[in-house]
Structure formats: structure tokens, C-alpha cells
Write a structure and sequence with these properties.
The complex is a heterodimer of chains A (about 220) and B (about 350). With about 220 residues, chain A is mainly α. Chain A contains twelve helices and no strands. Helix content of chain A is about 85%, strand content about 0%. Chain A is elongated and about 70 Å long. Chain A starts with a helix and ends with a helix. Chain B has two domains: about 240 residues, Rossmann fold (3-Layer(aba) Sandwich), CATH 3.40.50; about 100 residues, Alpha-Beta Plaits. Chain B has 13 helices and 15 strands. The longest helix of chain B has 17 residues. Chain B is an alpha/beta fold. In chain B, a hairpin with a 2-residue loop joins strand 9 and strand 10. Classes of the chains: A mainly alpha (about 220), B alpha/beta (about 350). Chains A and B meet through helix 8 and helix 9 of A and helix 2, strand 6 and helix 5 of B. Chain A: It is a multi-pass membrane protein.
Chain lengths: ~220, ~350
């Protein structure tokens, strides 16, 4: 304890705040990740099946969804964050703190999930889908029993990448008052020149990213045959 | 019975439209092992995909057992597809399901309980001879084994028709033979109509009883396997037959200089025979009866559907009148004789002709 006090006095001082920031980051990522997946996965599936030559080809739906996804994907997160403030206020009632950060995070992550899921599902051999059609499967059956089963490793991997990106986004959201580790590092570390806080939060973020990445890769390996 | 009635299909690309099928009419009888052969791009894959409407023809009808499936609703079409099994060149198994689950896939949701599904799957795997791999994943199987699993899966709903789209093209010769024998076996055991798409005449020769030849989206020739092999009419058919029977190098054989015998009349002919005639020793008989020399340059005898069928390239030399008498005798015995070369002058420039 004595030693810790000597090398990083500020971290020890602000330890309860650091823990709260960690909790906020995890909460932000968890909530926005869950909601973004819940919307993004069906969106990704829709993009795949409505694509030209696919199961439920529909040029109009594909075009509109594709454009919608691209717009949100193209905007840098910092811009998105400020651009959608009215929407954030409408949905969350506030634009600051955890609640205020989650809405833009969802807006940023959902199209990301959709595109990732789309590319994962496009990897599935069209021959397998053709075989299912030939066996008399309906399009819905093919989505549930072929695309989602065969594409599961790809989807898991897509979600891993999404969570990693969300951790990054959440740090940015912190800078506009969203709370979390990013906010903590900037406010207490950067602005007060407390290097030890910067180092500790950086290590923490690295650790979280690594754990998520390893977990994702482990699952991917388990699920692939 | 499958009736393909005047099917046409055109693929539109940016500038050109390609006629994949042009007014194709085919009739496939119940219990047939029907081969459709053609080079790539001939439209045979499109044609077989029209049988279960994986591809919809622009015009024409597909009638299976008196049901016009081109007129069905999507739902009834799916029901109908359960009665049409299909296997593919690249097997198309689901990699994340093991052998059992792959075969069980089409059985789910058909009102069978778990025990019934298991019984059925095991029975099917026994039929295709791969029961020992029931919990393996496709990535752990060889090509031949994968195709066996695919056949089991295709047979799960007791289909009346089995469509094989280049089913042996990705297999080595040994596995090709094994899978073909399995298909023939199933055809006989289950009285299943089998339609085989291939670019290999060997495949057709091995198992089919009827064959259609496709070129540029059209069926240019069709008939029983024996008819097609013994009497091919179109150039492309002759080519396929020639390749299979080993005639493709004949021209070289015939044109070789060492065969020339300038001292007497020489006639090189191709003799084709079918059935009974093949068994008889016609060549030595005419050689003795007419006193002419017969030099056999090439010969092949095949058995097609239990009927022997063969051809010989023979060079006769001796008295020209005697030789022509001998040829008349052969023709009287229903043996087809075609003169290829007379005294060193080529008479038929297509040595591949049957």
C-alpha cells in the first residue's frame, strides 16, 4: 500500500472514482452492445437476404437499408455524438452521463453490427442455401436453420469486433460528459497532468479489450468445425 | 414421370442476352437413370435446376407426375420439392452440423418424433454405407464420404426423383465409380428416377439407360444409351462417344505410313457391331472365306446395359472384288461398315465417326 501510494498517489486517492468509471464503461458497452446487436443482427440478415440474387431479393429495401447504414457508418463518432443531440434528448431525456452516452453509442454500433453480420453471412456457401431450398425449406426456415447456424461463428466474431470498437467509442463519449474510463482519464489524468492516472486507465482499457478479443476468438474456435 | 415441355430461359447481362435454354423438351420415365451430357455452358445445369425450379424457366412447363409444378404456389412448390432429392458437385453439406444432423435436417418439422428421426437417419446412413461416421463433421470426411452423406440427406423424405448435378465431377475415379454404383443401386432398390447431369460420357456409359446430349442450350440428340453409342448422329455426340471409346487418336493410327502395302489393293474400314454380332468371329470368318488379309488396327468392345457393343478398325488387303464381297457379307449381318481409306486415299475425314 505504501509502495502503491508512492508510485501512483493520485490513483490511490481517486480509487473509488476509478472504479465507478470502470463500472460506467462496462455498463455503457454492455447496454449499447446489447441493443445494437438486437437491432443490428436482424438488419444484417435483412441486408443479406434482400441483396440481389439472394433469398428474398428486394432492391428497394436493400437500397434504403444500405444507404441508411452507410450514412451512420461514414460519420466520425465525435460528429455523430453531437449531431444527434436532439434525438438523444428525445430518447433518453438527457444528453449527459451514462444515459446520454448510450444513445449515440447505439447509433454508431448498430450499422457497424449490421455490416459485420452481413459480411459474415455472405461468407456462407450459396450452395448450402441452394441445397436447403431444394429440400423444400422456406426462406424463414433457411434464415433460422441455415444462415444463423452456419454463420454463428462469423456473427460471434462480428460482435467481438463491435464490442472492441464500442470500448473505443465509449471513451470518446466520455469526453462530452458521458462518464466512464475515457472521461476519467481526460478529466483527472490529462487535464491535471497526473500521468499515473493516464497510465492506469490505459492499462485497464487495454486489459478489457484483450479479454474481449480472446474470449471472442476462443468462442470462434469452439464453434467452427 | 418428368415432362419438360418447351423450356426456354435467357440470361440478360449488360449487353448480351445468353440463351441458356432454347425450347427444350424432354420426357423422363419413372425408374429411368437419365443422363444429360454436354460441355460447360451447354445449359445442362440450368436445365436440371428447372426440374425443381431452383431456376424458373422464362417459358414452358415442368410436369412431374401429372402436376404442373410451374403453376404451384410457393408453399405447394416447397411441399413438392421434398419429393425431389438433389445432390451437388460440391456436396453442399452444412459444416457446422455433423453427419447425423445434416441428414436429419430435412426430417425436422415433418411430424416425426426424435426416435423416429433417429431410426430413419441410421437407416439412410446404412443404405449409403457410411453408418460409422454418424457423429463426424463434414470437414473430417473425404469427398466420396461427403457425397454419400449428401445422398442420404437427399433421400430423407423418400423422394421419387433424385437430381444429380455433376455429382461425381469433384471425385477421383475410384470414388466416382463407387458413387455411381450406389446411385444405380438406389435406383433399383427404391425404383427412384435418377437424372444425372455430367460432362463425362463415362458416367453416362456406366449407369444411365437413356441420355440426352445438350449443346448451346438445346437438346441436340436423345435416345437409349445403346442407340447413342452405336449410332451417334450429331458431331458433338460423336465426339463424346469417341472420347469414351478411345477413338480420339484413330486418325494417327490410320495415317501411319507403315500400314501402306503398295503391292495390293488395300481398304481400311471401321466396323461397328451391336449385340449378338459382337460375339461372333466375323473377321476371321471373312478372312478365311474370302481369302483376304485382315489387319486389325484398333478394337474396343464395351458392354452397355448388358449388351455388348464394339468397333474395330480393320485394314483389308488382297483382291479388291473379294474385299467388297466380304463387306457386303458383313452388312448383310447387320454390321455397320464405313470405309475410311482406300489405297492410301482418305475417304472419310472424320475418323471419329461411328
Amino acid at each position: 500500500m505504501e509502495l502503491l501510494n508512492q508510485i501512483m498517489p493520485n490513483v490511490v486517492d481517486l480509487f473509488p472514482d476509478l472504479m465507478k468509471a470502470l463500472k460506467d464503461t462496462l455498463l455503457m458497452v454492455l447496454i449499447s452492445g446489447t441493443i445494437a446487436s438486437a437491432i443490428g443482427i436482424p438488419l444484417g440478415i435483412t441486408l443479406v437476404v434482400t441483396r440481389e440474387g439472394n433469398l428474398l431479393e428486394n432492391k428497394l429495401i436493400y437500397f434504403i437499408l444500405g444507404k441508411f447504414v452507410n450514412v451512420f457508418r461514414a460519420l466520425p463518432f465525435v460528429i455523430l455524438l453531437t449531431a444527434i443531440i436532439p434525438i438523444t434528448r428525445f430518447i433518453a431525456g438527457t444528453t449527459i452521463g451514462l444515459k446520454g452516452a448510450v444513445v449515440p453509442l447505439i447509433f454508431a454500433a448498430t450499422p457497424f453490427v449490421a455490416r459485420q453480420v452481413e459480411s459474415a453471412l455472405l461468407e456462407i456457401d450459396p450452395g448450402v442455401i441452394e441445397a436447403a431450398k431444394a429440400m423444400g425449406s422456406s426462406p424463414l426456415e433457411i434464415i433460422y436453420r441455415v444462415l444463423l447456424i452456419e454463420g454463428l461463428p462469423g456473427i460471434v466474431y462480428a460482435l467481438t469486433i463491435t464490442i472492441v470498437s464500442l470500448i473505443g467509442f465509449s471513451a470518446v463519449a466520455g469526453t462530452v460528459g458521458g462518464g466512464g474510463l475515457g472521461d476519467f482519464a481526460i478529466r483527472y489524468g490529462y487535464q491535471y497532468f497526473r500521468t499515473d492516472i493516464m497510465i492506469v486507465t490505459t492499462i485497464l482499457l487495454l486489459l478489457i479489450v484483450n479479454i474481449v478479443q480472446s474470449l471472442g476468438e476462443y468462442l470462434l474456435k469452439r464453434l467452427s468445425h | 414421370m418428368i415432362l419438360l415441355d418447351n423450356l426456354s430461359k435467357t440470361y440478360e447481362s449488360k449487353k448480351v442476352s445468353v440463351g441458356a435454354l432454347k425450347n427444350v423438351t424432354l420426357k423422363i420415365e419413372k425408374g429411368d437413370m437419365f443422363g444429360i451430357i454436354g460441355y460447360s455452358g451447354a445449359g445442362k445445369s440450368t436445365l436440371i435446376r428447372c426440374i425443381n425450379l431452383l431456376e424458373r424457366p422464362d417459358s414452358g412447363k415442368v410436369v412431374i407426375n401429372d402436376i404442373d409444378i410451374t403453376a404451384l404456389s410457393p408453399k405447394s412448390l416447397r411441399k413438392q420439392r421434398e419429393k425431389i432429392g438433389m445432390i451437388f458437385q460440391h456436396f453442399n453439406l452444412m459444416n457446422r452440423r455433423n453427419v447425423f444432423d445434416n441428414v436429419a435436417y430435412p426430417l425436422k418439422g415433418k411430424g416425426l418424433n426424435k426416435v423416429q428421426i433417429e431410426e430413419k437417419v441410421i437407416k439412410l446412413l446404412e443404405l449409403v454405407g457410411i453408418k460409422d461416421k454418424v457423429y463426424s463433421y463434414p470437414s473430417q470426411l473425404s469427398g466420396g464420404q461427403k457425397q454419400r452423406v449428401a445422398i442420404a440427406r437427399a433421400l430423407a423424405n423418400d423422394p421419387e426423383v433424385l437430381l444429380c448435378d455433376e455429382a461425381t465431377s469433384a471425385l477421383d475415379p475410384q470414388n466416382t465409380r463407387a458413387i455411381l454404383n450406389l446411385l444405380k443401386d438406389i435406383n433399383q432398390k427404391l425404383n427412384l428416377t435418377v437424372v444425372i447431369i455430367t460432362h463425362q460420357m463415362e458416367v453416362v456409359k456406366e449407369v444411365c439407360n437413356r441420355v440426352a446430349v445438350m449443346e448451346n442450350g438445346e437438346v441436340v440428340e436423345k435416345g437409349s444409351i445403346l442407340d447413342i453409342f452405336s449410332n451417334p448422329k450429331r458431331g458433338i455426340t460423336k465426339e463424346f462417344v469417341a472420347n469414351t471409346m478411345g477413338y480420339d487418336n484413330l486418325e494417327d493410327v490410320i495415317n501411319q505410313g507403315f500400314l501402306k502395302n503398295s503391292s495390293s489393293y488395300e481398304l481400311t474400314v471401321k466396323i461397328s457391331f451391336v449385340g449378338q454380332a459382337a460375339g461372333q468371329a466375323f473377321i476371321s470368318k471373312i478372312s478365311i472365306d474370302y481369302g483376304i488379309l485382315a489387319n486389325i488396327l484398333f478394337g474396343s468392345i464395351e458392354s452397355l446395359q448388358g449388351v455388348s457393343f464394339g468397333s474395330l478398325i480393320v485394314s483389308f488387303s488382297g483382291n479388291s472384288a473379294k474385299i467388297h464381297e466380304a463387306i457386303e457379307f458383313l452388312e448383310e449381318n447387320n454390321i455397320k461398315v464405313e470405309v475410311l481409306k482406300e489405297n492410301g486415299i482418305i475417304k472419310s475425314n472424320n475418323a471419329q465417326c461411328s
